[in-house]
Design goal:
heterodimer; A: alpha/beta; Fumarate Reductase Iron-sulfur Protein, Chain B, domain 2; Rossmann fold; 3 domains; four-stranded parallel sheet; 50% helix; 6% strand; globular; B: mainly alpha; Fumarate Reductase Cytochrome B subunit; binds protoporphyrin IX containing FE; binds iron/sulfur cluster
Amino acid sequence: MSDEELQEQTQEEEGQAQATAPKKEPEAPAPPKPIDHVKIKAILDSNLGARMRTWLSICARCGLCADSCFFYLAHDKDPQYSPAYKIKQTLVELYKRKGQVDRAWLENAKEIVWGKCSVCRRCSMFCPFGIDMAIMFGVVRAVCNSQGIIPTGLARTKQNIIETGNQMAMANEDWVETCEWMAEEWGEDYRDLVVPVDVKGAKYMYTVNPREPMYYPQDVGMMAAILHVAEESWCVPTVGWDCTNLAMFAGDKAAAAIPVRNMYNSAVELGVEQILTTECGHAYRSAAFEGPYFLDLPSGKPPVPVKHAVQLFWEYLKSGRIKIDPAKKLKEPVTLQDPCNVSRSGGLWEMLRELTLMLVEDFRDMSPNREYNHCCGGGGGFIPMGPEYKRRRMESGRVKAEQIKATGAKYIISPCHNCFDQLNDLNKEYKLGVKVVSFKELIIESMIVPDKFKPVEEDEDETAEGAGEE
Amino acid sequence: MYALYEFLTGPGAWIAFAVFIGGLVVRAAFLYGLSRERDKLIYQHFNPSWGLRSIFHWLIPLGSVSLRQQPLFGLVFFVFHVCLLATPLFLLAHNTLWDQAFEVSLPSLPEALADYGTLVVMACVVFLFARRLVRPEVRAISGPWDYILLLLVLAPFLTGYLAYHQWGDYALMMVLHVLTGELMLVVIPFSKLGHLILFFFTRGFIGQEMGARREIDGRLGARTW
Ligand code: HEM
Ligand code: SF4
Ligand code: SF4
């Protein structure tokens, strides 16, 4: 399948070149490429394993999945938004018609599988047969993607990945430069702080979401400070530093393999013990669980274990390797967002809670929570899908907004970048009056920095403040 | 009529049971073989413990978060399945037949109890049918087959009940009873009712996929129940 996808990529480029070059009448828009039914059929066939066959035939039409889906709940229980209905309209239809569908059909399917589902997998927990509908929607996404019918935001992101290996098309040099800059800046507050690059045999290879070097470089600095204070053996790689994988949500296996391959290769070349991913949900899912399948690794497991930042933080705080100043714990009410790919699909929900309790005084859980959390509405590619889908994102996010409101929290911790953006948008839209924070920020604000890491030349006052500054 | 009855309870029964059991076995064997080839994921992360726990919790009444959210349906669903399986299996009259045909028989229920079991199944079918029509999210996904199958499940119980109480034409009821019963058996392997055995595979899979694979340092994975 991956070769085909690559071929398709080149064909598409050729197709565009031909469409622009010999056209005489400048007004006429390039006619859309005819639908390639052979390719659709190939994707459908390649996914028709035992699981898919069973899922397709076993659904009892019991409707239990409906109430589990936040799209359904946010649209006042409109049956059109129930998971089984969305599957019936898309994948079931595709198999029934053996892929013989036209462009209009695919356009409509696109609005369903991207616009009405964030592949959060909550429904699979509520179905008596455990039908993994998110995986099934993934197949429809792959079919749409194979015909170039995908949300423009994701198409752009996917192109970035294909061309540069990371979703924001940032040059590797710029990444390394950002790390150096952060080392310099944070080195003023933390004595001897460095951001080690490409260190062979380091314990952790730290990988980030490109948003961080691009828009939130302080995130890199904060992480460096935490790892520095913990006296960790770590490094960042020059190549393969992007752990995110939006091609995964674009339904493009070949493109999804690119960032994972880069990351795994670097980890193996550097001989690190583990890959450490930043506070990002889908990145962890891609690196720890899906990546091996994009690369068809025979073991089904990543070449080195993958650890999410919150797990490392949890280990540090639990073991006392990093100590929290009780006086600096957050006093105001705090709630916690369970990112789908960190909790339900990541298995980290108890650590999130234990970590939270070590950092705040008044923790108020949302309901439902843990592996049964609702998606914030920003997952599954929704955030990069851009303004076109923003309205829908705000509508479906109502469920999360109401959950947050019910806690009365003033802060919400989000160990995921996509949730982070969505929660900020929801905060404005629904006037929640909360501040969205990451675990990194909370730890930086409250950790006890041993004297040996305090800057030498400064006087005491400035050190105390400096530690909390960004 | 008698000849028809003779056929249905003789060769007809053999055919029905052969298709029912053979169909399920072939289907399961085919899917197993296919999964070996195409669904490596299952075996790469194979974990019976999480799979069995997930199966177990969905078999006990209201054992899952999902069913607890709809407790009425959850209970009807449980009672329906228990009576659906137990009544025909442990019915005295059936046991006598099996004894004659295969020389094996199961313990039998007292007749009155079996009678209640039949009523319960019928009541449950009516409930499920009504639910299908009344709840918009269920109606939206239901096709003709979902209603037909429910009626097909109802038919042998209804006719059996009528025959037992000698209401209506006994001979006709008996023929209809055996006919619809055999029809139901034959349909099971080829319809969504195949969940009779496929349930154990899909449930086991999601149990390990969400549970074992997400277990970190021996901590909880996601419980799919
Ligand atoms: C072992 C676990 C099983 C589970 C979790 C399960 C689950 C379900 C579910 C969710 C329904 C849908 C109810 C509805 O109509 O709304 C159903 C219906 C049904 N099940 Fe099962 N089932 C199981 C075993 C069986 C077995 C062993 C049989 C034996 C034949 C069976 C026969 C049926 C029948 C006849 C229906 C009604 C069909 C319909 O609704 O149209 N089930 N089951
Ligand atoms: S995966 Fe999530 S968003 Fe998609 S249908 Fe299921 S519950 Fe709804
Ligand atoms: S819960 Fe599962 S079996 Fe029931 S309608 Fe939804 S997908 Fe089908």
